[in-house]
Amino acid sequence: MPSPKPRLLVVGFGMAAGRLLQEIAQLAPGQFDITVIGEESQSAYNRILLSPLLAGESDTSLLPLQSADWYRSQGIKVLTGDPVLELDVEARLARTASGSSHSWDMLVLATGSRAARLPLPGRDLDGIISLRTLNDANDVMARMDDARQPARNAVVVGGGVLGLEAACALQSRGVSTSVVHNAGWPMNRQLDSEAGEFLASTLAARGIRFISDAQCERFVANQDGQRVAALQMGDGELLPCDLVIMAVGIAPEVSLARESGMAVSRAIAVDGWLRSSTPGVFALGECCEIEGEQFGLVAPIYQQAQVLAAVLQRHAESGLNASLTDIAPYTRQALPTRLKVSGVHVFSAGDLDDLSSLASGASASKRTLAWRDKERGEYRRLWWQGECLQAAVMFGDVDDSGIYESLIERRVPVTASAQALLNPAGLALS
C-alpha cells in the first residue's frame, strides 16, 4: 500500500502563496496533499493591477493568478474567506474563524502584511482607506461612482510608488487629488532630489498637488461626525477631502507566528531556505525576513517561492532532517524600481543607500554623472565606484534602462567615456 502524501498546509493566499503553488505544480506535481486557506474571499490575485483597475486601465478578469479549474486540476483544496486564527504547532493543527480544523505535516505561512496607518486623531472616520486589497479598490471605485454623493476631492497620504499610482488613478477618474509626503520629494527612497523635482513637476502638470515635508495633524469630520471632510496640516491648512488613501507602508502580519512561539523580529525570522525556528514550519513573502531583510516587491518573493518549492519537495522525499546544501538558498537582490503610471516613466536601480556619499565626490574612485533636458522633461544620473556602475536614476526616456540594470547587476567594469555612459548604445564592456 503506498504511503500517504505529506499534508502541506498554506496559510495565506496572496501572490506569494499563489506563486508557491505554481512552483510546486511544476516541480512536484501530485506529490502533496495541499490545502490553502485565505482570509480574503478571492483566490490569489495580482495586487499590482489594483492601481490600473482604479484608473480604468484594467478589469477584474485580469486579476486572478490561476482559475478555479486550475486549482481543481492540481488537487489543491482552496478555502477562502475563513482566516486561520490559531496554530497549535505541537499538534500540527490550524483552526479557522469558522471553527474548522486542518492538520499538517508541513506548514507554510504566507500571511503577507497589513497596510500601515498613521496614528492621527480621526483615523477611523469613514472614507479613510488603505489601498491594499481588491475589496479596498472596489470600495474606492464605489465612492467615486456613488450617484448620491460621489467622491470629488481626495488626499493621498504617502508619496511612494503606491501612493503616486493611486493619486494618478484618482486624478484620471476626475477626482481632484493632493499628495502629502513627509520627505522633500516624491519616491525619495528610489530617486535623488533632482529626479524627484522632475516627477513633482509632472504630477503638477496632471493637476495633482504635491505637498513635500508635510506634517499631518488630524482628520476632520463632516457635520454628522462620521465621514472625513478634511485633513488638517501642521501649519493649520485644511485640505478638503471626502476620500483619503493611506499609502504609508506595510506591517508584516506575524500574529500567528508570534503567538505560536516562533522567532519573530519585525517579521518572521527564516533562513535562506525559508525555514522558521519551528521545525516543519516555513514562511515566505512580506511576512518573513531573512537576515533582517524584509520584502515588498514581487521579484524576491517569487525567488523565495522557487527555493521553497525545492525545499518542500526534498523534505517530502527525505524527511525534515534532509540535507539542503545542494539547494541554492535565497540570495539578496538589488532590484530596480519602475513607476507603473501611464505616461510617467521613472526608473531607479542599484545601491541607492550610498547615493549621498557618491554624490559628494569624496574620492576619485566614487563618481557621479548627470544629464538633463528640462524642455523635454528628461533626466538621468549615474553613480559608479571605480569602473563599475553602482546605481542609476532615470526620468522620462527609460527605454535603455535594461542596459544600466544589467551593468549594475553584473558589476562588470565599464570602459567608456562620460558621453557613452549616457548613451548606452556606445558602451564597451570589459
Straight-line distance between termini: 61 Å
CATH topology of the largest domain: FAD/NAD(P)-binding domain
Count of domains: 3
- Helicity, as a percent range: 10-25%
Number of strands: 26
Please tell me what the overall shape is.
globular
Beta-strand residue fraction: 25-35%
Tally of individual helices: 11
Contiguous runs where pLDDT drops below 50 for at least 5 residues: 358-362
CATH architecture of the largest domain: 3-Layer(bba) Sandwich
Structural commentary:
The radius of gyration is 24 Å and the shape is globular. The protein is α/β, with parallel strands linked by helices and 430 residues long. The chain has a 5-stranded parallel sheet with strand order 3-2-1-7-19, with no helix packed on it. A 5-stranded parallel sheet has the order 9-16-10-11-12. It has helices at residues 15-27, 50-55, 68-73, 134-144, 161-172, 193-205, 255-259, 298-318, 355-359, 401-410, 418-421; strands spanning 7-11, 33-37, 77-79, 84-88, 93-96, 101-103, 106-109, 113-115, 128-130, 153-157, 176-180, 209-211, 216-221, 228-233, 238-240, 243-246, 250-252, 268-270, 281-283, 288-290, 293-294, 337-338, 346-350, 366-373, 378-385, 388-395.
